# Entry
Amino acid sequence: MDFKHNYPKLADLLTKRVDISRKEQQQSRWHWLTLILFGLLTVATFSQQLILVTLFIAVVAVIKGPVMIFWGMLYSFLVGLFPPIGILLSAIFFLLNIGTFTKNWRMTLVGIYFYFYPVGVMILRQFVHWDNVWFSAGALLLGLVLLHVMLTKLYQRYGIGRTIFWYVFSIPFALLTALLPSRLKTKLKVYHKNN
# Structure
């Protein structure tokens, strides 16, 4: 079976595929948007950081929400038809999530830096009283340079700035969806015990 003979257009596309260079990704709007959002988080106060993270969650929810509702309906339908398939689907989704985390551990570390560096700077400004212009400017410059270096290393591995931006941008939503159901269940159990 000759791949080029059977699928000439796909074979031509794959042979002419142009790799995305680091230079192009560093000049992309996704790279600059990531740096701008990081800068905003770094110079923001605690309440402004909460507003920005809430805005991130809202934007991701608007985009991911309908897809999650669809998958939830499909999952419920399949479990309704054959209940033991719920255990199998849950195991598959769990393994896929573990696989995604291990495959993207570098992006996860950059995401942790993206959210915790601004919190650390804010804590130093508020509790150690380093709230002067030089500290804020130095912390912002250092944070932006470190994030830029981390992003350029990720571009070598993953290539596309949009994928990295979306992964980092959606971390608060992923954490919220991972934690929210268990907390709601706990509150409901406490509510039913009291009544």
Observations:
- The two ends are 70 Å apart (CA to CA).
- The chain is about 85% helix and 0% strand.
